[in-house]
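From the thread on structure requests for the teaching lab: each student submitted one protein with a one-line request. Submission from student K.M.:

"Model NADP-dependent oxidoreductase domain-containing protein from Sander lucioperca, tokens only."
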Amino acid sequence: MVMNLFKVAIEIGYRHLDGALVYFNEHEVGQAIREKIADGTVKREDIFYCGKLWNTFHPPGLVRPALEKTLKTLQLDYVDLYIVEMPTAFKPGDTYYPKDENGKCIYHQTDLCATWEALEACKDAGLIKSLGVSNFNKRQLELILNKPGLKHKPVSNQVECHPYFTQPKLLEFCQQNNIVIVGYSPLGTSRDASWVNLKCPPLLEDELLASIAKKYNKTTAQVALRFNVQRGVVVIPKSFNPVRIKENFQIFDFSLSETEMKAIEGLNKNTRFVELLMWSDHPEYPFHDDY
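Reply posted by the TA:
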């Protein structure tokens, strides 16, 4: 199923594919990419694949093996972007979510600069085109940016970003440092209480978004995506519905006025859907800081 949805997305025109080892679907994504290259729909250089370094692979000696595992699964020679998925390291080993006998996650001491140097070596070896991070706050970004002997700056920071959580301070900081914000959950999230903050109401039912959508004969999702794109945020909407996958791509034939942009900015509740509170006692948990 996943493979077919990715093929549909590529046929519609999507070129930025966001993946990760812990999504457990890289073999299907890789097959979809290879089949669309084989049938002439795209060339490899048309596809922008983002892979992620998981929390159990932070020690420098594990970085390249983790990347090589992704490349082998995808059956690709390189990834276009490889990002540190979280600044929170977990105990390395055979399980991606190591837990003690009480069911608590086992952490590992983090040295983000050492992890970064190992990533730089992978880029120098031609296995990665660009390096980035995800869920990093300003302090953690500065740690990398100010690292002595820095060879390759992070080009992107993938964080939650949508009209209810607009990230103005982090967006400004990243733009000043030529770091692109890639917004995950740009349409809000599922309502799964096991990991989603349900205090935040469903984004796509917002009345303001609905009224603007009606004006342009668009969906609330299309308005939410257009809002972020217009402010320089890359969006990576997730959908398993071919109709919605197509709709999410149809946001380039209208634009929001300055007044509408300001009104949508005013929806900001400064509340995350994705809080990841189960790891909030990790020394590098990123969301205690203001931004």
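TA comment: The two ends are 37 Å apart (CA to CA). The first helix runs from residue 2 to 12.
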